[in-house]
Structure formats: C-alpha cells, structure tokens
Amino acid sequence: MTEAVLLVGGQGTRLRPVTVNTPKPMVPAAGVPFLAHQIARAADAGVTHIVMATCYLAEVFEPYFGDGSDFGVHLEYVVEDEPLGTGGAIRNAARRLTGGPDEPVLVFNGDILTGLDIRGLVESHKAAEADVSLHLVRVSDPRAFGLVPTDSDGRVLAFTEKPQTPEEIVTDQINAGCYVFRRSVIDAIPEGRPVSVERETFPGLLESGAKLYGKTEDTYWLDLGKPESFVQASADLVRGVVASPAVPGPRGESLVLPGAQVAPGAKLFDGTVVGAGARIEAGAVVKGSIVLDGATVRADAQVSASLIGARSVVGERTVVDGAVVGDGARVGADNEVRAGARVWCEAELPDAALRFSSDR
C-alpha cells in the first residue's frame, strides 16, 4: 500500500476572481475539478490512501470527493485552522497516516499538472533507500523556482529557493512539487507552527547528512498558479497532450458537458470546455478556453485562452482574449477584454465600455 498527502490549502490569490468562491484545486479543468485529475492519476499509480491537507474553503472538498471510493482510493481530510506552510501541512496530515517509520509517503501539491511516472518515483526512492526523493524538471528560466542541483548519482547537493543573482543559477533543475518521504522524516517536522519544506526542512536534512535524491524526468509539467497556465492545462487535458483518467469524454478539440447548448455555426476548438448548462450562441468562436457551468457566450463573441466563470455572460460581438471573467459577471456587447484583464464576480460591464484602438 502506498499512502499520500495531497496539499490543497492555498488561497489561489493569483487566480482570483475565480478562486473567490472556489479553492483553486476545485476549479474545473477539462470538465471536472482539477483535483480529480490528480487523485485519479495517483490511484492509477497504486496509491490507496490519500490524506487531503485543507485550509482555505476546506468545507467544499469532502462533499464532492466523499470517502474516495468512486476514485478507487480511501480519502481522509485534515483541516488547518491557520496556514502552516508546506512542511507544517504535511506534519499536520501525518496523524492520519497508517504506515510504519520506514514506509514511503507520496506528497504532492494540488496545483501542479504533470505526466510524472508516480510509481517509478516511489520505486526509485525505495531502491535508493532515500530519506526524501524529489521530482525535478528542467526549465529554460528557473528564476521563479527552487533550484536543486544533483550529482551524477542523483543525490541532492543544495537548495536555492528562487535565485536572486546570476551566480545563484547553478542548474536548470527545479523542484517540481512532488516528493516521496520516509515516514519517519515527516514525523520529525516540528508540529503546531508554520514550516516550509523548501526553506527549512530540505536544507536542514541536507545539512544533517540525510539521503535526498532528485529524479529528473523529461515529462509534461505545468504550475497552475496563473490563469493562463490553468486554462492551458485544461486545454492540454482535453486534447490529450497529458493523460488523465478523470477527463469525462474523448480527447479532441472540445469537450461539451451534458446540458450545455452549442448553437449551429458556433466554433469550439483548441481544447475548449463548455460546462453543464452553459450556452454558446450562433457565430461565437471559443478557442482554448474554459466556459464554466451556466455561463453564456452570446452571438458572434470571440473568446480565446480565457476562463469564463459560472453563470457569467459575454455579450454579443465582445472579444475576451487572455482574460478571466468572474462568476456571475456580465460583460456587455461590443467590449474588448484583453491581456490579463479580470472582471470581478457579479460585476457588470456596460456595452462598448472597454475598447482598444486598432492602430496600437
């Protein structure tokens, strides 16, 4: 049996206003809450028991996932009254783990989409008799991430969290947010206070001589912290760029959920999702976007690389490109909402209120 801790306590501030009413892991991607993809992939890899470490809007997880039986796992929930950081959350969840001190515990973040071979990471951890094994990926610009250089055997040499100077960029390998811990290492994390595994636990283990290994895998990896990344992840799941057993339909250019209405002449492509009860009117073009439940995209509107919130309305001939429209918002006709703009939940934008000059 493999156990896991799933970290889902963050507030998702970079995804607002989508996360005002919904925690980031519960925002739908490819037709289901993003968390469903992670749980399904973990179950496929042989994980049988998952402890979900929750904090922000903690009450919404259990009504959807229940005891996990629909996903083939046993799910339990632990709530942080105050945010405890990554290490503190892992330690807080450990009280629900059942394995012995030398058993492996998979730990993964609720905002990462990856094609990682989870079973392979656990097996390599056991073979190396490691204290902690880390999934690493290579990126072209590592400045926004934690750098993890390793030796020729994969043993971790150092941790540099978000390097500030060129001299600190000693590798393109970054911490990809999935780990395997020896259970006894988790039990040694201090209780009852915030702890960062990146800044405190891992450097402390390295200093003490613990065996930390990195497994660098050339696979799909995407941090879903920003709206454009979340929308991209959903589109990639729909198109089958990265696989998930939780996608509720065949891979293709679009995914239309039951109860949605797509008028003749409307065009959906590049991995677009249309949620239950949503409506796409005639002449509308929706490209690589998420249209959540009950939303309406009116006639001749153009929506590209955007997230359209539940029950919201995009007016006739309006262009939404690389933007977020919050739940219940109404964007009037003949507007242009572009380049990272965010329309807040329940906001109303009048007709032709926002336009961009064509000669810019």
TrEMBL record:
Gene3D superfamilies, per database record: Hexapeptide repeat proteins, Spore Coat Polysaccharide Biosynthesis Protein SpsA, Chain A
The record ties this protein, via InterPro entries, to: GMPPB_C, Mannose-1P_guanyltransferase, NTP_transferase_dom, Nucleotide-diphossugar_trans, Trimer_LpxA-like_sf
Q: Where does the record place a coiled coil?
A: none
Domain (Nucleotidyl transferase) ranges:
4-237
**What region holds the Mannose-1-phosphate guanyltransferase C-terminal domain?**
252-334
What family is reported?
Belongs to the transferase hexapeptide repeat family.
Q: What is this protein called?
A: NDP-sugar synthase
Q: What is the lineage of its organism?
A: Bacteria, Bacillati, Actinomycetota, Actinomycetes, Kitasatosporales
